[in-house]
Design goal:
Layout (H helix, E strand, L loop, with lengths): L7 H32 L6 H13 L10 H31 L8 H16 L4 H11 L4 H8 L3 H15 L8
Length: 176
C-alpha cells in the first residue's frame, strides 16, 4: 500500500456507506423536502434544511441500525428547522439591539457606568449557580439548554433564575 492510500477494506466500507446514503436520499429526500418546504419559514431554504438533515444522518455511526429511519429523518428535519428558526430569531434580536441602542447608553460614559452597575449587581448574587443560570438565560438559552450546560434538572433552572433575578433587582423594585 502506498502513502496516502486507504486500506482496501476502508474503501469498501466507505463505498457501501455512500451507496446506502444515496439510496436513502433518493427514497426519503423528496417527501422530506415537501415537508420542510411547508414547515420552513420565509427566510429558510428547504433544500438547505434537507441537506443539514442528511448531514446528521451521514454522521451517524450506523445509520442502517436506526429502527424507524423514516421517523428518525422527520424528527431530525423538524429539529433542524426549529433550531434554524430559533437561531434566526436570536440573530434578529441581537441585530435590533445593535441597530436601536438605548438612547441613554449612546453616551460612552453612561454606557460604562451602566456596565459597572450590572457587574456590581451580578457580583451581589450570592448563589454562583443562580448567577450562571441568569447569564445563560440572558444569552438566549432555554431552561432545558441551561440545565444541560450546568448539569441541573430543568425545573431547578427556573428556581435559580428567579433567585438570581430577585437578588439582581435593585431593592424596592417589584417583579415585572
Amino acid at each position: 500500500m502506498h502513502a496516502g492510500q486507504s486500506p482496501p477494506h476502508r474503501d469498501a466500507a466507505d463505498e457501501a456507506k455512500r451507496t446506502l446514503f444515496d439510496r436513502l436520499y433518493q427514497e426519503h429526500g423528496p417527501s422530506l423536502f415537501r415537508y420542510l418546504r411547508r414547515l420552513a419559514g420565509a427566510d429558510d431554504d428547504p433544500a438547505d434544511l434537507l441537506h443539514e438533515t442528511f448531514l446528521r444522518l451521514w454522521t451517524q455511526p450506523a445509520p442502517e441500525a436506526i429502527a424507524n429511519l423514516r421517523a428518525w429523518l422527520f424528527r431530525v428535519a423538524t429539529n433542524v428547522a426549529h433550531n434554524r428558526r430559533r437561531d434566526m430569531q436570536r440573530s434578529r434580536h441581537r441585530e435590533q439591539a445593535v441597530v436601536a441602542p438605548d438612547a441613554a447608553l449612546e453616551d460612552p460614559v453612561a454606557r460604562l457606568d451602566a456596565q459597572a452597575q450590572v457587574q456590581r449587581a451580578l457580583a451581589s448574587i450570592d448563589d454562583v449557580r443562580a448567577r450562571r443560570a441568569l447569564l445563560l438565560f440572558a444569552e438566549g438559552f432555554t431552561y432545558r439548554e441551561i440545565a444541560g450546560i450546568l448539569d441541573l434538572a430543568p425545573g431547578h433552572v427556573g428556581v435559580l433564575i428567579q433567585r438570581g433575578r430577585d437578588q439582581f433587582r435593585p431593592r424596592g423594585e417589584s417583579t415585572p
